[in-house]
């Protein structure tokens, strides 16, 4: 889609890019059959400058800027991925104990001809959707639903794909009253003990236990500008310095970027994003994610059930010993 036709949300550090693209949009409105070549030439120069500025900006993002990109409202969400590369998707609802939680979506489908179970956090793409999905912050029933679907996948020997994108589990009183911590712990335990392959992609925010609950996998991948952390930068700053405004300092100290986590061995793969972030070319990043998942599943397909479980246990035990 042409930039002039796209209504974008710009982040604070993208102000120079926004100004250039707004200028291009204004110039394109002047184009008609009698337009002089000089106007088209000016547009070409501005578009070249936009691409250069985008490249310079996005190859030197700070951890806090990556946090903002990971939270971008126009970034593709779980259902965008599911609708793009899962065929015959059949959503499954409810935890069979209390209720259905729309913050976690999941169901059966086909991925490249293979039956799979796919589970993910869904934030919603507009105001109505965000309210429905509670901004991707799951209640206990969301994690109990995830456990139900994972156990079903194991029963039928189906690989599991999880898409993580949450600021964290919902912290409200009602969630705590219904056993939030226990639900997260049981979901994490379920992941550890499954005897089928689990592949996780952190597509935006991977926040706290709310992320780990469905991300205790054989293969963990992150999009280039995604983040993965035990707590949000704002939360860490509030606890450590008692000042949420120190969030940028906290983001740097916490090593939450894909690049830092790759060095520490927490994740296996970084999936490249288009220049300017996933929100600028959703189709591109979804194709890249599909290819990465396909490769990960292919690497695990010949592993025996007990071997898959042992590899997962060893992976997380090693993190605890070395970090």
Number of domains: 2
Our Rg estimate from Cα atoms comes to 21 Å
Percentage of residues in strands: 15-25%
Q: Give a quick account of the main beta sheet: strands, pairing sense, barrel closure.
A: 8 strands, mixed
Shape: globular
Order of helices and strands: HHHHEEEHHEHHEHEEHHHEHH
The CATH architecture of the largest domain: Alpha-Beta Complex
Task: Name the average pLDDT.
Answer: 92
Structural class: alpha/beta
How would you name the CATH homologous superfamily of the largest domain?
2-enoyl-CoA Hydratase, Chain A, domain 1
Q: Output the CATH class name of the largest domain.
A: Alpha Beta
Here the CATH topology of the largest domain equals: 2-enoyl-CoA Hydratase, Chain A, domain 1
Q: Uncertain runs with pLDDT below 50, 5 residues or more?
A: 1-5
Count of individual beta strands: 8
Total helix count?
A: 14
Could you describe the 3D structure shown?
With 323 residues, this protein is of the alpha/beta class. It folds into two domains: 12-60; 67-322, 2-enoyl-CoA Hydratase, Chain A, domain 1 (Alpha-Beta Complex), CATH 3.90.226. The protein has 14 helices and eight strands. The protein has helices at 15-29, 37-58, 63-70, 78-85, 127-132, 140-155, 173-177, 180-193, 208-212, 233-240, 247-254, 258-263, 282-300, 305-322, and strands at 87-91, 104-111, 114-121, 160-166, 198-207, 219-223, 227-229, 269-271. Strands 1, 2, 3, 4, 5, 6, 7 and 8 form an eight-stranded mixed sheet that branches. Strand 5, helix 9 and strand 6 (219-223) form a beta-alpha-beta unit. Helix 1 runs antiparallel to helix 2. It is globular, with a radius of gyration of 21 Å. The termini are far apart. Mean pLDDT is 92; it is low at 1-5.
